[in-house]
Specification:
Helix content: 40-55%
Order of helices and strands: HEEHHHHEHEHEHEHEE
CATH architecture of the largest domain: 3-Layer(aba) Sandwich
Strand content: 5-15%
CATH topology of the largest domain: Rossmann fold
Oligomer: single chain
Structural class: alpha/beta
């Protein structure tokens, strides 16, 4: 009898804790959806592809080209975008298998040459991003980009979309030995900005962004245009934004 009572108490306790966690997340989602003013942070870390700039079609076309050229393999748009947010080598090896340094160099060179040839047809900032960055800058927030895109095309794409000047720090795969989803890129951005983790929000569109931010001790926010199927993500966002202006 006593064992049954203890079991019942434990089940009730677990249910209560799970409900509390769900309610906390729900409140934060509603908080953003209904336009209430969310916490204002002294600093914001932004992913680039899929967060600031819409490069989904560009990424798809480039991986479609590379997989066809080097493996005679057709990939779907969904498959090509599944690993967006990872560094190029990990992304490429997800389709082509392990690559030694020379094999990766050859494939990456062809991949990036093709990207440079077509990017103007597939590059734009997401709606409302520039306005949100203007508002954050006007209230004195410091901003950094934390991305798996290397610095040459990151700089080019941000300048082409008119976003480059909003940021005072850029963390790319060249910046840290470990990349997303490890915390290193976010921690490096905090170091460059001179800001503690509790004073910054990591804004992104992927599981890798949320995991990186969470591992570094930051609150995180998912942008409105991020994939909606997040049930199996390893790290849930602190906020789900219904409007980028909520920042």
């Amino acid at each position: 009898m006593r064992d049954a009572v203890c079991l019942g108490i434990n089940v009730f306790f677990q249910f209560t804790m799970n409900f509390a966690r769900m309610a906390h997340g729900f409140i934060r989602v509603v908080f953003c959806i209904w336009g209430a003013e969310m916490k204002r942070y002294p600093a914001y870390l932004f992913d680039a592809d899929g967060t600031l700039i819409d490069t989904a079609e560009l990424i798809y076309q480039c991986f479609r080209f590379t997989c066809k050229k080097f493996a005679d393999m057709e990939i779907s748009r969904e498959m090509a975008l599944k690993y967006t947010g990872l560094p190029l080598r990990k992304h490429m090896e997800a389709y082509l298998g392990p690559l030694d340094d020379e094999a990766f160099r050859v494939r990456a060179e062809a991949h990036m040459d093709y990207q440079m040839a077509i990017y103007r047809d597939h590059l734009k900032a997401f709606p409302g991003v520039r306005e949100a960055l203007v508002a954050l800058r006007e209230r004195g927030a410091r901003m950094a980009v934390v991305t798996s895109r290397r610095i040459p095309t990151l700089s080019l794409f941000l300048k082409e979309t008119g976003l480059y000047g909003f940021f005072s720090a850029f963390v790319t795969p060249e910046s840290t030995p470990r990349h997303k989803p490890a915390p290193d890129p976010a921690l490096e951005a905090l170091r460059l900005l001179g800001i503690p983790a509790q004073d910054a929000l990591f804004v992104g569109d992927s599981e890798w962004d949320m995991a990186c931010g969470k591992a570094a001790g930051l609150d995180t926010a998912i942008v409105p245009w991020a994939p909606s199927d997040r049930a199996h993500w390893s790290a849930a966002p602190t906020y789900v934004l219904a409007d980028i202006a909520a920042l």
